[in-house]
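Private note to self, pasted from the team thread so I don't lose it. Backbone tokens:
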């Protein structure tokens, strides 16, 4: 590719980020990532965490999904959307995506210093079953999965949809691993009672 800054800028704003209002979807996710990284300093002392090799079970599908989800992947492959929602439809999808992201922030703020990007046991960690954690056991993953799938559908390319699905599967796998870890760390009886009361990822579904 040429060293011309204009061409690099055009490449960055290519694929599904090349036109409005699909650019709005990218802006929402970029702002979420920045805010999430900045807030990572707000976390308590880690007591124990899942080994790195074990975490590859969910990290690999998430990484592969993220690569497929990037607008440049679709650009390189010359993809066209399978369908078109129109501007109004994209705005509706953006609102739904924002709702999913807002759910993740509600959960993170409610969790406070017990939050961690990895599967960890923080000092003083205990079962939290209020707020969003009274609706689902893993509300951050619920919000991310919902927002990601909605965005993938809104974009409408095969790679974006497949990327969103892979990221969602990785999040679901992480939730399952976290269940086993927290049951062992917080106590099978206490966490088991929570599991019997509250669904894992989908609100109002049977718990278990």
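Design output:
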């Amino acid at each position: 590719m040429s060293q011309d800054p204009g061409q690099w800028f055009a490449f960055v704003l290519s694929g599904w980020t090349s036109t409005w209002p699909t650019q709005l979807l990218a802006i929402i996710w970029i702002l979420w990532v920045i805010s999430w990284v900045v807030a990572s300093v707000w976390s308590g002392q880690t007591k124990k965490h899942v080994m790195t090799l074990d975490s590859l079970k969910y990290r690999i599908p998430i990484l592969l999904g993220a690569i497929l989800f990037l607008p440049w992947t679709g650009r390189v492959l010359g993809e066209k959307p399978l369908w078109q929602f129109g501007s109004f439809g994209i705005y509706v999808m953006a609102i739904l995506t924002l709702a999913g992201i807002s759910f993740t922030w509600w959960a993170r703020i409610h969790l406070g210093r017990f939050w961690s990007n990895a599967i960890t046991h923080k000092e003083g960690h205990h079962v939290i079953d209020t707020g969003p954690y009274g609706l689902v056991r893993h509300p951050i993953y619920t919000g991310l999965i919902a927002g990601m799938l909605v965005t993938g559908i809104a974009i409408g390319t095969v790679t974006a949809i497949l990327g969103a699905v892979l990221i969602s599967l990785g999040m679901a796998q992480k939730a399952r691993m976290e269940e086993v870890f927290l049951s062992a760390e917080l106590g099978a009886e206490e966490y088991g009672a929570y599991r019997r009361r509250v669904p894992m990822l989908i609100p109002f579904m049977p718990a278990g």
